[in-house]
Amino acid sequence: MAEKRYKLYEFSRREARRRPPPPETDLTDVVQLHDLDRNTDENKRLIHRVVLPPKPQHNEGASLSAAEEAQPGKEVLCYTFAGVPGLLLFPGVLSEAEQQRWCREAVLDYGDSAKHPNILSTHAKAPQSTSCYQPPMRWATLGYSYEWTRKVYHRDRYSTFPSALRARMCNLVSLVAEVQQDGFCCAYPDVYEPQTAIVNYYPVGSMMMCHQDISEETLEQPLMSLSLGCSAIFLMGTQSREDAPYAFLLRSGDVAAFTGPSRSALHSIPRILDDCPEYLTLPEDELTEAERHRYQQHAYCARPTSDGSFLRVEKAMMTAEGQERYWRLCMRHMRVNINARQVYNERCPALFGAPRDLAQGKGGIGAG
């Protein structure tokens, strides 16, 4: 299996004495778009660079919203890869300030079970409410909830889709629509509407097994994926498990779009690298001893209590400065992936109305 080639192997002290040390992970065949010279000759032949025209300049003095932080007036780089038709990669398209915003939202807002269901509030052995992201949370859903066991969506189970994230995803899809590849158009921006976003939290040492995202009615619309925090090795192949996948290095600020054939391709995340950018976390010398111990590679996630419960983090008890410090501490050894997709063919205005209070039983959390 390709995943085993890149997986991080960690042994206990007892196992480490009995086993030979695992070999260093060989990244030779990994496609790296931030440093094209590091690619193999074969991969270089498969990489195609697309330069999109500059976005129009905004009026002087006008403030930029989060949805407009793609540095208007500058060219946007996109790469396609002949080995995976339809996969579009936009390296570094999210500015440092925008990455900070989405990390802050992912930790402090998207993990609040009163607003959006997450694995701890719906699927844990002992479900509990959460006020923000906290270990061992692995995912939260925005918009229509997804029932993981049956792999279906439910129209009556949804949370309000954040307006700023909606605007940003539509903005990115407008970039995708400008890329022509292999004779097909990659998107339909005039009718695109992000209706579900799954926020994945990947601490170092975690992984996502091989799967397809094919439960949506609208597979002709792109799936948009934002990478934040630690880098990841991303594998994508075809619709067949018989075909070997290609490996890509995704860094914080990168955006991937699954379009055309890649929209239903098998993919996985076998490895999270421990390299969160400094602008998303706190310097080592600013940590207290308690913080250094607690947030050391999320080791505290590995020992859950016997009944599956956890000590709830109370966001309301934090000052504004404390909340800022908390999300940066959480990002020290973690990757956040926000992936949005359209679920139904028709528009769903109810998703973008007034916030729904799931804590009061109005959100239909269910099993999604």
Account of the 3D structure:
Helices cover 18% and strands 23% of the residues. It is α+β, with helices and mostly antiparallel strands and 368 residues long. The protein folds into 2 domains: 28-51 and 75-278 and 333-347, Sandwich (Jelly Rolls); 279-328, no CATH class. The chain has a 9-stranded antiparallel beta sheet with strand order 1-2-3-13-10-15-8-4-5. A hairpin with a 5-residue loop joins strand 2 and strand 3. Helix 4 packs across helix 8. The protein is globular. This is 2OG-Fe(II) oxygenase superfamily, putative. Fe cation binds at residues 211, 213, 267. It comes from Leishmania donovani.
Summarize this entry quickly.
This protein is α+β, with helices and mostly antiparallel strands. The chain is built from 8 helices and 15 strands.
